[in-house]
Amino acid sequence: PRRFCLYPELSEDLVGSHPPGAHSLVAVSVGYFLEDFVDMLCNQKLHQSWELLFHHSVVIICFGIAVLLHQYVGFALVALLVEINSIFLHLRQILLMANMAHTACYRLNSIINLGTYVVFRIATLAWMTHWLFLNRQNVPPATYAVGTVGMAIMTPMNIILFYRLLRSDFFK
């Protein structure tokens, strides 16, 4: 995105600029990801949750850096757009657990899930990768390395999950 409607300063500076409350939102998100990480460790088998545990580890590290340094909060805020799709991913799981896979509600959610997946996961991650690449001279090497590794992990994971969703919900 070229401009952010409510806080256009973000389009110019994702490193030092962020709207009021954004730092708190990212800090609370770190807490959520930590809690969810611990819950998965305690209540799920490792072979069922290793991908999410890995995902959460990357997010905790990247968001933790933003919270501790009070920098890159804007970048983390953009990354939180990905979580909009999580609503429909979680609803999909709930519908599957309720044995509602063959209902109109499930079908509608599948379509919305796929649409929000493309917009809020794939497009957002692509934009973030592009931003990181364009701004590599303005980002300290260690932070650039963490961001690059984070994006290099998240992008393939999300493409694989997208393929699994397509295969499961549309190409059975």
UniProtKB/TrEMBL annotation:
The gene is Tlcd2. Pfam families: TRAM_LAG1_CLN8. Signal peptide: none annotated. It is a multi-pass membrane protein. It is found in: Membrane. The keyword Transmembrane applies. GO terms for cellular component: plasma membrane. Keywords: Membrane, Transmembrane, Transmembrane helix. Its main location: membrane. One of its GO terms (biological process) is phospholipid homeostasis. Residues 1-172 form the TLC domain. This is TLCD2 protein. The chain crosses the membrane at residues 50-69, 75-91, 111-133, 145-166.
